[in-house]
Structure prediction request, 219 residues.
Amino acid sequence: MKRVFICMLSICMLLSGLVMAPEICARAANAQPEDARLTSKSIVIVRGQYAFIGLSGGNATGKATWSMSGNCAKIVEDGGPDGYCYVKGVKAGKGTLKCTVHNKTLKCRVKVLNNASFIGDFCDDSGEVYLDVFKRGKQYVAYYSQFRLCTMDSLRGTVKNGILTLKGEDPAGNPITLTVSRKGKKRILTFQATTWEYFEQGSTIELKKCSGKKGYGSQ
Prediction:
């Protein structure tokens, strides 16, 4: 009985590519087509910005067909067997991204704005620091990268009193808090709470709006 259990666990680990607890493996093995879902049900981006929408659950990858209704955004890439899609904001308006998988159609509402205080692509003067922010439902979602140093893609936050506060994990997996404020046309990124050795708490970086192509190419 013990050998059977070890054998089953090994198979599960091979399928997932990760060291997972037995119950997690069982859930992955039992995933059904109806479990397929998109990573976002609604997004808000600005004109020229690229956004990533993923497909997960239900062993869905490799069987997805993507389409975009409305003319506010267009599909610039879909991942085929990897189950993801990139859209680009073209003009202000609303549309719907559709993903058909296992004869089921999943939808993500897309809203494109001409401008927004804290939505868009931002970088420093040297082009080494990049911040991509879009809105998923009522929550802001951000991707941060710093050339040859790190990336952080788990940042989530809200705007209060004209300041965007983002929280997530630093590259070492510890909690981190960033804020973004406006100063004329600039955005001031501040490391409000950090313990990572390469970030200094209270330090700031001046950012400006930049082309969404930069972030699209780096993700």
Notes: The longest helix spans residues 2-16. The two ends are 46 Å apart (CA to CA). Residues 120-210 form a domain with the Lipocalin fold (CATH 2.40.128.520). The helical segments are 2-16, 22-29, 212-218.
